[in-house]
Amino acid sequence: MSPKHYVMFVLLSWHNQDGSVGLWSDGSYRLWWPSGVGLWSYAEFLHTMKGRTTDKLYLPLRWAAIQTAKNKNNYKHTNYTDDQAWWANGAIRLEQYIRSIGDATVELVNASQAVIDDNIAHETNDCDGGILWYYGTPPPDDHIKQLYPTY
After folding, report:
1. Which of 19, 37, 50, 129 has its CA 20 to 30 A from that of 97?
2. Mind listing the pLDDT tens digit for each residue in 31-54?
């Protein structure tokens, strides 16, 4: 399989056929962060190609990013602020590309803003300030053990 065809295969198999999860997986938490990085990487690729991309790549990516925002609470799918931030970074970069070709979305900007607002809401003065890495229950160690029993 050529690199071009491989990229298309990976992108088009992003969703589990109905567009409900937006992950390169079964929708579990395990690939939430890498999938956000994947969105950002594809958006960077579109910028790099500067008009040499085709609708076969751009349109599914746009659809997948918007569907994920709709189905996963504007990318706030986990209580890990860094995971969510990758999705926001990818959405913003994709929106920049979308606007560079004369189009625009509301969904990607709104989802990114929701993540930024969520991160700000979890700022802390602990350890001289910053944003909490995880803000849910159980604490991260217990949560990681549940997700990765062999960890």
Report:
1. 19
2. 778 888 888 988 998 888 876 666
